Task: inverse folding
């Protein structure tokens, strides 16, 4: 298990629009400046961007905190209604499952020594809780794994080699 993870950053995508999910993750070790920054983000909400400490249970009185503690922040302002349900419910469960996938695979421990920040994007047109949960699980699992293990040297070299042809769905230029 890699314990030198403080400050590691990665991203992941899961599912397909409009129920696809994109996440960015930052891993931190308790007691570090990175963990302090995550704690500050958690304790400094702004309207429409309420942080969530991933907590799970069949009803509110039975909630338990996900370990490693995982703070979820929205990338966009949450709109009341279905999007709020998808963020607070489906995406939260999926993110927890993705984190626990990495615990189950021995990449990270289920304890209080690691803190995870997940920056979450859920499409405002999303309408399927199960699809969003599965997409969030995939996105979080991939992102946490990449943050811990990094990417292969050949993947990194390929990006450098192909740098002139890189693109992105939000870029329409040539």
Result:
């Amino acid at each position: 298990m890699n314990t030198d993870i403080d400050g590691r950053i990665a991203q992941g995508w899961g599912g397909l629009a409009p129920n696809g999910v994109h996440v960015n993750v930052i891993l931190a070790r308790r007691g570090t400046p990175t963990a302090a920054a995550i704690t500050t983000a958690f304790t400094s909400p702004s309207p429409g961007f309420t942080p969530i400490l991933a907590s799970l249970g069949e009803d509110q009185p039975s909630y338990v905190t996900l370990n490693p503690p995982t703070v979820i922040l929205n990338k966009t302002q949450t709109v009341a209604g279905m999007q709020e349900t998808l963020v607070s419910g489906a995406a939260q469960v999926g993110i927890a499952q993705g984190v626990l996938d990495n615990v189950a695979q021995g990449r990270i421990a289920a304890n209080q020594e690691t803190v995870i920040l997940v920056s979450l994007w859920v499409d405002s047109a999303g309408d399927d809780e199960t699809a969003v949960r599965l997409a969030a699980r995939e996105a979080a699992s991939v992102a946490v794994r990449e943050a811990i293990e990094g990417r292969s040297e050949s993947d990194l070299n390929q990006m450098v080699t192909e740098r002139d042809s890189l693109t992105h769905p939000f870029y329409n230029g040539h």
Notes: The longest helix spans residues 82-104. The domain at 9-165 is CATH 3.30.230.60 (Ribosomal Protein S5; domain 2). The first strand starts at residue 9 and ends at 14.
